[in-house]
Amino acid sequence: MMNSLVLLALALGLTTLFGPSAHALKLQIIHTNDLHSFFEGPRLATGGYARLKTMVEAIRENGRKQNAVTLFLDAGDFGEGSSFFMAEEGVTSLRMLDELGVDFSVLGNHDFMFGGKKLYDQITKAKLKTKILSANLRHKKWQGLKGIIKDMDVVDTEGLRIGIFGLTTNDSHYQYYIRDTGSIKDPLDDVGDLESKAKKLGVDYLIALTHIGLEVDKKLAEKSKAIDFIVGGHSHVALPEPVLAVNKKGQQVPIVQTGAYAVAVGEAFIDIDPKTKASKLLSYKLHEITKDVPRDEHIAHLTEEAKVSRNQILGRDYEEEIGSTTFDIGGYVAKSINAEDASCWSKKIVELTRQVTNTDISIHSEVLEGEGIPAGPIRYGDLIENYPHFSQFGDKGWDISTIRVNGFVLSQIINFVYLDKEKLKFYLSGVEVTHKNLIPYFKVNGKGINWLKYYSISVPSDLIAIFLHNYPWFKGILYRKVTRTDHHYWDLLEKYVRENSPLRCD
């Protein structure tokens, strides 16, 4: 018995002196993504920043009890997406990152929707302490963002260096908004260079904080030799368990993501050996922010203040009741229970757009819609949340443009929209579809499409501008005049609701 105790004591002593657990760093990563300024969370779900703050503090306390070093990382799109982004012209959305306690965030595509210079103004006015990263955002100097948005940063803690770099999606249709001052490089191009930079900086544990989507995150891991952990966003996927991708060395790289709209927060514990630099994912949990989570009083107060600022930007009362609906109006954020009802509203939007512009056809996508509106009263603010897009602070939502294209181009557009209608939830007005031997044939104004004739299309102005920016060769014989109308979506939808309430799904 005595010999056993001696051996046990000796074993424990050796572990204390030489074992990796003696001075191993336990790292706690708290993470969110795609908050989109949903300060109160989606109306048909739970969450919100006040509950998120309470949950984060509870998670931090869990880390303190385990003597862990905590990092709070946000994977981008903290800006545009909800009407709360209007508060202080976007400044409040950035300030909320500090209030939540975020250490690092990555630039998301909805965070520069008004250009790099406007983002600079928002960051400086917010006196932001959260560090924003993006290694593939080019020409930062031209946008006033040099030194403000870094490629990579390093945290020194307990003798170890934790490196974090950011990557932003380079989808071409989002780059339109920074076209005059910068661009975004393919996030997979410089993986090796970033890893070399981390090595020169003496980084022991490397985290990729990305806003590029889950599928690109997997490719990032596969191209990597040194990335240890990926905190991702952009694809709005809630992962209850990390996705494991294998890097060039045959090692597994965990990828995590929490979904979107402040309805969940992730928590990971990682053990890092200070000598070998070997790391191990000890545990992971995706915490759902349910209604029983109490709201943090300070964040709740800031949210109420944001409502006042929002009304000032709107120039009217967000809560004003303007009509009612007998069916659940669909939306991309929180869909109606009844799929048929959800599409009913999209069909009304596309038909209304064609009528007011008097064009041959109109195109709309359900992806452009925001929150759904339950059957019952409709407030003015509900329309904003349902179509949360505007070109500048103080306008009445996106305006509508018309473009004239020849019949050949029109047939290609219609064919693309028709074939991808299930994926992107496209809706067409003014187009009749018939089938012969399963092959679709399209008619406009009751006639087949004449390739030599020009037809008019109505679509949101920003989408036309993005399209023509990405395809500058699309000129001359392929299209003619582009005209911006005086019709704005919020005014258009409000007028329709007032004149047709209670709305019915006919």
Q: What overall geometry do the principal axes of the alpha carbons give? A: globular
What is the mean predicted local confidence, pLDDT? Answer: 89
CATH-derived topology of the largest domain: Purple Acid Phosphatase, chain A, domain 2
Gyration radius, in Å: 26 Å
Low-confidence stretches: 1-22
CATH class of the largest domain: Alpha Beta
CATH architecture of the largest domain: 4-Layer Sandwich
Give me the CATH superfamily of the largest domain.
Metallo-dependent phosphatases
- Number of strand elements: 25
Strand content: 25-35%
* Whole-number tally of structural domains: 2
Which short descriptors sum up this protein?
single chain, 506 residues, alpha/beta, Purple Acid Phosphatase, chain A, domain 2, 5'-nucleotidase,  domain 2, seven-stranded mixed sheet, six-stranded mixed sheet, 25 strands
Q: How would you describe what is shown here?
A:
The protein has two domains: 23-298, Metallo-dependent phosphatases (Purple Acid Phosphatase, chain A, domain 2, 4-Layer Sandwich); 320-500, Alpha-Beta Complex (5'-nucleotidase,  domain 2). A hairpin with a 2-residue loop joins strand 22 (439-444) and strand 23. The chain is 33% helix and 27% strand. The protein has helices spanning 2-18, 20-23, 49-65, 91-100, 116-126, 172-175, 191-200, 214-223, 297-314, 339-357, 380-386, 407-419, 421-424, 461-470, 489-500; strands at residues 25-32, 69-74, 104-106, 131-133, 137-138, 149-150, 152-157, 160-168, 183-184, 205-211, 229-231, 243-246, 252-256, 264-272, 279-288, 321-325, 361-365, 376-379, 399-406, 426-429, 431-436, 439-444, 447-448, 454-460, 479-488. It has 15 helices and 25 strands. The strands form six sheets. It has a seven-stranded mixed sheet. Mean pLDDT is 89; it is low at 1-22. With 506 residues, it is of the alpha/beta class.
